[in-house]
Amino acid sequence: MSEKIKTSIMVRRDLWDEFRAKVAVEKGLKMLSQAVEEALEEELIDLKVAEALEERLKKMEGGPADESVPVKPRTRTDAGRVIREMRDARI
C-alpha cells in the first residue's frame, strides 16, 4: 500500500453532498476516503494504460514481428478463381 496523505480540496457543496450520500448508501460513510481515492484512480486510468502500452511497444520494437518471411503455398492455387466461387456462392 502506498503512503497516504491528508489533503484539503474545494468542491461545490451540492456535488459533495450528492457524492457523500451515494457513498453512504453503497459503502457506508467510513469508506468515503476510499471512494474519493477510487474516483481519482478512475480519472487517471487512461494515462496509466497509455504509459503501459508505450512500454510494451518499446519492448516489442525489433522483436519477432519484424522477422516475417514470405512463404510459398505447397499446392498450386488460383486466388481469383477461389474468390469468384465464393462470390457466386453468395447469390
How would you describe what is shown here?
By secondary structure, the protein is mainly α. The chain has a domain at 8-67. Helix content is 60%, strand content 0%. The protein has three helices and no strands. The protein is elongated, with a radius of gyration of 28 Å.
Helix-and-strand structural type: mainly alpha
Share in β-strands: under 5%
Mean pLDDT: 87
Strand segment tally: 0
- Low-confidence stretches are none
Please provide the ordered H/E string of secondary-structure elements.
HHH
Helical proportion, percent range: 55-70%
**Total helix count?**
3
Largest sheet: none
| Spatial extent as radius of gyration | 28 Å
Distance between the termini: 63 Å
Overall spatial form: elongated
Which key phrases capture this entry?
mainly alpha, 91 residues
In short:
The chain is mainly α. The chain has 3 helices and no strands.
List the helices and strands and how they pair.
Elements lengths: L12 H14 L5 H29 L18 H12 L1
